[in-house]
Design goal:
Dihydrodipicolinate Reductase, domain 2, alpha/beta, 345 residues, single chain, Rossmann fold, six-stranded parallel sheet, 26% strand, 2 domains, eight-stranded mixed sheet, globular, 31% helix
């Protein structure tokens, strides 16, 4: 594949525009169309100088052919739209989560095999310097046997984020806090340490009962299939601003903590016979005005997609890994559905 890779973006919100911008900035990428069901988005898309469509179905009938279709819509639409894209003969770049159930992920993977098209899952935190360094440390077995891993994700998502009439906070379209806010960190955990078992958990709703259909906080315990114990503590009930996203690793030969608001700073490294190198600076967080998200590493995603389609490399986060993240969240949330969410009275 020698010519430019043609992309269409479904969903023209903040993330959709980021995808469009990343495509246009890449010398081997070409943006050919954007789609959004909100007519008001058309004027926002005008600066890109490409056709705008009000439905994915209309785009697939009348629009230009795209080599890749980017799915940047509410979570609950990802599966069906990925299926439409694959059936149309396009590769797919899907924002997290890949879907809201393992069954839907399997449906997408089966269709991708049928159509011989690739599905790329957007898990951009893998590209942050601390994440790449952690992967190297684990691959080289620098820490020896892993004893304990603690992940803390404490963010602010309040009524500035969960606005009436939007998809955020809706069970069917959002899926829950772990899907929308913290799936990146579950992906990093799985990428580093593999699958988990013997999951137990407690779920609380401290200040979101009037804002969402689901919990705002959870305390999760588990064991890794490869050995060692883990905990995931998360909340969106933090007042005003994000507090931290951190991972602490206790191993046979040393301890590491990567913290900061977005797991973007190495706060502690004491490892046998090892001197901590100076890492490149991390990308800033995605800035949405009154709140911030994970690191702005989308340019790495599009470099990977284009290089993979041109046969230069392979997908950084493939569909099977996207499925595993969804499956882990689904298993955690199965505990939520079995018990009661404690709501502050």
């Amino acid at each position: 594949m020698s010519d430019k890779i043609k992309f269409a973006v479904i969903g023209a919100g903040h993330i959709g525009k980021r995808h469009a911008t990343m495509v246009q900035r890449h010398p081997e990428g070409e943006l050919v169309a954007m789609v959004d069901t909100d007519p008001a988005r058309e004027s926002e898309v005008d600066p890109y100088g490409i056709p705008f469509f009000l439905s994915m179905e209309d785009f697939l009938v009348r629009g230009p052919k795209a080599d890749v279709i980017c799915i940047c819509t509410p979570n609950g639409f990802h599966a069906d739209q990925a299926m439409l894209a694959l059936e149309s003969g396009s590769h797919v770049v899907c924002e997290k989560p890949m879907a809201l159930s393992k069954a839907d992920c399997e449906r997408i993977i089966y269709k991708s095999l049928q159509t011989s098209k690739l599905v790329f899952c957007v898990m951009q935190n893998r590209y942050s310097p601390p994440s790449l360094w952690l992967k190297e440390m684990i691959m080289e077995n620098r820490l020896g046997q892993i004893f304990m891993v603690q992940i803390n994700c404490y963010w602010n998502r309040d009524d500035r984020y969960y606005k009436p009439g939007t998809w955020k906070g809706d069970q069917a379209l959002d899926g829950g806090t772990l899907f929308t806010q913290f799936s990146h960190f579950i992906d990093i955990m799985y990428w580093l340490f593999g699958d988990i078992k013997n999951i137990s958990g407690r779920f609380m709703d401290f200040n979101h009962a009037q804002l969402t259909d689901f919990e705002d906080s959870g305390l999760i315990q588990f064991e890794f299939m490869n050995g060692g114990a883990g905990t995931l503590n998360y909340s969106t009930a933090v007042w005003d601003n994000n507090l931290e996203s951190s991972m602490t690793i206790i191993g046979e030969k040393g301890s590491i903590k990567v913290g900061g608001q977005y797991m973007n700073e190495v706060e502690y490294c004491h490892v046998q016979d090892y001197v901590m190198p100076e890492l490149p600076p991390s990308s800033p967080a995605n800035d949405y005005g009154h709140y911030k998200g994970s690191a702005a590493n989308h340019h790495f995603i599009f470099e990977n997609v284009i290089d993979t389609l041109k046969g230069k490399t392979f997908a950084t986060t493939n569909a099977l890994e996207g499925l595993k993240v969804v499956e882990i969240i689904e298993r955690i949330y199965a505990l939520r559905s079995q018990g009661q969410i404690k709501i502050r009275s």
